[in-house]
Write a structure and sequence with these properties.
Helix content: 55-70%
Shape: globular
Structural class: mainly alpha
Number of helices: 17
Distance between the termini: 74 Å
CATH superfamily of the largest domain: Intergrase catalytic core
Order of helices and strands: HHHHHHHHHHHEEEHHHHHH
CATH class of the largest domain: Mainly Alpha
Number of strands: 3
Radius of gyration: 24 Å
Number of domains: 3
CATH topology of the largest domain: hpI Integrase, Chain A
Length: 388
């Protein structure tokens, strides 16, 4: 039988995780109130934790507390699912069973793109909508045409903002590529035919940091707390190696080779692990965090949360910590600005586009081109033979 004390412990851990991951104070308080109601509701229930986090129990709770929105309970169930405490978390709607080909695609995303559970569930939302549309109109998946896809998108995206529409179109493109290349189900690759709003086709300038911003950033980094040491190491990894927040969050202790001054980055988008040389300052930054900032833990991930129970950091936490640090320095760029700066530095150093592609872990050379910016200094040197 699940005890009240055990439930309270899990709820306290979840609320602490929320506070640590940047949730505003009012949201944490509102969630705490709803979780207290839920604790009272399930206090006398017998059985395992799986019997508590079911849609039947959730519906019963909503009948007793009709004004509760249920966000806190669903959030707690997701947290417990990620901790391995329950096998399936709650959602607003009960999960819809999909044909096997859709489930196969989600497995494919996990294996080839290292898509975590949250990302797969977001993809699944689009797949459920597509499947429902095809079932309603009695369309077989193998007979899809761009006209039918356009009909689906016009209906599905009619109430979303343009940025959200672009994200959903991207998820659908991935599935269509899978159907064409991996499953040979479609006679034509429909993915390139899905066209979004014109503004999303325009190249966006990269947001790399200028020299004065870099001086302000690295001159203002502190070392007085475990949080400071952790941020210091993450900023160095993003700037000197161009690592994505996700790659930083997934680094393990055995990926660091201090004697050789190298780092093995395994979770790359192009599925090609790479061993990179690490500058001396970045080696020292990681060592400082390991010695003075990293808590004792059996976890093998390099970066852990600040409060017990210590857990591996999520990519979002890496982004929030880096962005917060840069905002304190008066720098408007985000975490990816450091990655853009890394690419810019390689370009200025004369590194070829192909080498930059490999070092940044891109799937294609087109992805690399989006990160690069023809620096005014370089352009003047080439066109006007000026030395600046």
């Amino acid at each position: 039988m699940i005890t009240t004390e055990w439930i309270e412990t899990q709820m306290d851990d979840y609320l602490q995780w929320m506070a640590e991951n940047g949730y505003v104070e009012n949201t944490v308080k509102r969630y705490a109130q709803e979780l207290n109601q839920f604790k009272l509701f399930v206090a006398k229930r017998k059985g395992s934790i799986e019997n508590i986090f079911t849609h039947a129990v959730f519906r019963g709770f909503k009948r007793v507390y009709p004004t509760s929105r249920g966000h806190a309970i669903r959030g707690l169930s997701c947290y417990l699912h990620e901790q391995g405490q329950i096998s399936r978390h709650l959602r607003m709607k009960e999960p819809i069973d999909l044909p096997q080909i859709y489930e196969d695609y989600l497995i494919y995303q996990q294996k080839t793109r290292q898509a975590d559970h949250r990302k797969r569930m977001r993809i699944r939302t689009v797949l459920v909508a597509l499947h429902t549309f095809l079932e309603t109109h009695r369309i077989r998946l193998s007979t899809l045409t761009i006209e039918k896809v356009d009909r689906f998108l016009s209906k599905y995206l009619e109430n979303y903002k343009e940025r959200t529409c672009a994200i959903y179109r991207g998820r659908l493109r991935g599935f269509l590529r899978y159907l064409f290349y991996e499953r040979k189900l479609l006679s034509r690759n429909l993915a390139p035919l899905i066209v979004g709003a014109p503004q999303f086709a325009r190249a966006k300038p990269p947001h790399f940091l200028r020299s004065d911003e870099l001086q302000r950033l690295f001159g203002g980094l502190k070392f007085s707390s475990p949080s400071d040491l952790r941020t210091y190491a993450m900023v160095h990894l993003a700037y000197t190696l161009g690592l994505r927040p996700r790659e930083i969050s997934l680094l393990r202790l055995n990926d660091i080779f201090f004697k050789a001054a190298e780092l093995c980055v395994r979770a790359r988008k192009n599925d090609a692990p790479v061993r990179l040389p690490v500058p001396d300052k970045t080696i020292k930054a990681m060592a400082a965090y390991l010695v003075g900032g990293r808590p004792l833990s059996s976890h093998r991930r390099l970066f852990l949360t600040l409060q017990p129970p210590f857990r591996p950091m999520s990519p979002n936490t890496v982004t929030q910590a880096t962005n917060g640090c840069m905002r304190k320095m008066g720098i408007s760029k985000g975490a990816y600005g450091l990655r853009h700066t890394y690419a810019q530095n390689l370009l200025e150093a004369g590194v070829s586009l192909y080498e930059i592609k490999e070092m940044m872990g891109h799937d294609s050379i087109e992805s690399t081109k989006k990160y690069l910016h023809v620096h005014i200094k370089l352009m003047r040197e080439v066109l006007f033979d000026e030395t600046l």
